[in-house]
Amino acid sequence: MPTNGQHAAGAGALLAILRDGRARTRGELARLTGLSRSTVSQRLDGLIGSRWVVESESGISSGGRPAAVFAFNGAARVVLAADVGATRARLAVLDLGLNVLAEQVASLPVELGPERVLGGVADGFRELLAAAGRDAGQVCGVGVGLPGPVEHRTGRPVNPPIMPGWDGFAVPEWLRSRLGAPVLVDNDVNVMALGEHWAARPAVDHLIYIKIGTGIGCGIISGGGLHRGARGAAGDVGHIRVPASEAPCRCGNSGCLEAVAGGASMAAALRAAGIEARGSKDVVALMRAGDLRATRLVRQAGREVGAVMAAIVNFFNPSVIVIGGDVAEAGEQVLAGVRETIYSRSLPLATQHLAIRAGALGDRAGVVGAAVMVVEHVLAPASIDRAAGA
Ligand SMILES: [Zn+2]
């Protein structure tokens, strides 16, 4: 059915239909869009010319000649994706169908500052392109997730607490001048939410992705798209106050969720009890090895996160909550606590069809999400129409 708006039946709309598989032939496209077959053919020619679409003969004859079948050409171009963390960056080359063609994890502590870290990211991308047998001319965009607040419109970090030297740095311009493709930047949790939202197909309109790692934060998909808030600070649940806690938090307040349930705080609690633990990964490893104190901490962290999420479930009414981050690798130990508390404290109407589960993408949520951010931008019907009309 054609929808309103000038792009309703442009080349970009046809490409969107081919991407989600609702139509494959000229006749089906004409029926779905209300366009004449000749207009459909003309637009398809343009999309084939710019390599967005490939044509193949159908084996199935519909009475007379076999109908030509058209498909989105997800392999013709690639996206570069970087998930920059506090100490490491995961880099990947993906095709437009979001298949990972090559990837690497580089040791790039974010505290080295933007030029050294982004220089390492650009070098890594060049190596990965060569490894995937692709060249810079095939790159249609670059997506980057950073471990701090980012103003999405400009792609610049805003007062990031663990990123000295990055405040206001022009990340997109710096990378674009070296990689020759448009660059989109967002904070890591938003990017991971995009990745898990893509992985949660078929479409889920209201999803919360919560990352329990060293710190705690969440990304919000509302009405099918990312909700960033007025200043990009939406989802910062790690500093919501937990009742009956006075634990000091790195933000300067006390009693924050992160200060009782974050990986760094659990590791500190174990060290105070004489057990060697440097961070969230060690806490999970100790739990897996059968350490009772670590197990108790992880379960309690699940309940604390669940208590905050219960309020969010009542407020936001998501249909899916995805739990990711290092601590989520504790699996059922943490999920059980989250579920138990959400189901006992949220309203029945809000939890009736609520799914609470571990992330599907694991460590790749960030790079897949960064690629989703780029693909959604590059393949937006308006972008395709602009390119076709130019
Ligand atoms: Zn705090």
From TrEMBL:
One Pfam family from the record: MarR_2
UniProt superkingdom: Bacteria
HTH marR-type domain ranges (all copies): 12-57
InterPro entries per record: ATPase_NBD (IPR043129), HTH_MarR-typ (IPR000835), ROK (IPR000600), ROK_cs (IPR049874), WH-like_DNA-bd_sf (IPR036388), WH_DNA-bd_sf (IPR036390)
Similarity-based family: Belongs to the ROK (NagC/XylR) family.
Name of this chain's protein: ROK family protein
